[in-house]
Structures are given as C-alpha cells and as structure tokens.
C-alpha cells in the first residue's frame, strides 16, 4: 500500500514539475496583439517571441519573465514597466521609452537600444552584451 502511494506521489510530482506555470492574463495577450494597447496589463511570463509590438503602449505593464526575444518594440512606451528577468535578447527597442522601467536580471544581449529613453533605469546586473546602446551610455561596469 505504501509503495502505491509513494509511486503515485512521485508520478504526480514529476508531472507537476514538467508543466510550466502560465501567469499572464490571456485577455491581455489578445488585447496587446490586436491593438498594441495594454497599459498596466499582466503579461508576466508571456510568450511573445518575435512579436511586432512596434509603437505599443505598455506603460506600467508587468512583463516579468516574459519572452520577448527578437520582438519589435521600436517606439514602444514601456514607462515604469516591470521587466524583471525578461528575455529581450535581439529585440528592437530603438526609440522606445523605458523611463523608470525595472530591468533587474533582464537579458538585453544584442538588443538595439538606439535612441531609447533609459532615464531612471538601473542597468546594473542587466545583460547588455553586444547591445547597441544610446549615445553616452556604455556597457562597462
């Protein structure tokens, strides 16, 4: 009897570990992709690889842990957005407004940040290797 219970618990644990937890609000994902307007949206953990979000309004949105690898965010407004541990590798962020965005642990390697507004952004601990940075900003510690 104990062996059956142990086997069942082990199986359920393995199944639970193999499925990923999705935290984003599906309505917010649909809204963002349809209108590019998602101010204050919950997009935590969203899968948006390669999405065209140029000019999107994402002011105050929670994109923590989201995958925005190779996404086009040119001219997007990400003022005060939560981008903790967000993958923005190879993303186009030229002319984007990231003023006050929270980027702790974010991956911005090989991202294009030309003419991006990074006022009030803490870049310490952010992976900027190979990124194209705004004038006056360097990737040195």
Structure characterization notes:
With 141 residues, this protein is an all-alpha fold. It has a domain at 37-134: E3 ubiquitin-protein ligase SopA (Pectate Lyase C-like, 3 Solenoid). 19% of the residues lie in helices and 0% in strands. It has two helices and no strands. The chain is globular and about 40 Å long. The N and C termini lie far apart (59 Å). Residues 6-21 have low confidence and may be disordered.
Features:
141 residues; mainly alpha; Pectate Lyase C-like; globular
Rg on CA atoms, Å: 18 Å
Helix-strand topology string: HH
Determine the N-to-C terminus distance: 59 Å
Overall mean pLDDT stands at: 86
CATH architecture label of the domain at 37-134? 3 Solenoid
Compact description:
The protein has two helices and no strands.
Summarize the topology.
Layout: H1 2-18, H2 26-35
């Amino acid at each position: 009897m104990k062996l059956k219970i142990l086997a069942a618990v082990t199986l359920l644990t393995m199944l639970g570990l193999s499925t990923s937890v999705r935290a984003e609000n599906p309505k917010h994902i649909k809204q963002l992709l349809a209108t590019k307007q998602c101010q204050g949206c919950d997009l935590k953990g969203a899968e948006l690889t390669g999405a065209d979000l140029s000019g999107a309004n994402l002011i105050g949105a929670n994109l923590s842990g989201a995958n925005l690898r190779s996404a086009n965010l040119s001219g997007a407004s990400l003022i005060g957005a939560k981008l903790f541990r967000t993958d923005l590798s190879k993303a186009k962020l030229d002319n984007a407004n990231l003023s006050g965005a929270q980027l702790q642990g974010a991956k911005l390697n090989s991202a294009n940040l030309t003419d991006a507004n990074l006022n009030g952004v803490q870049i310490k601990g952010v992976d900027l290797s190979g990124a194209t940075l705004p004038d006056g900003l360097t990737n040195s510690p």
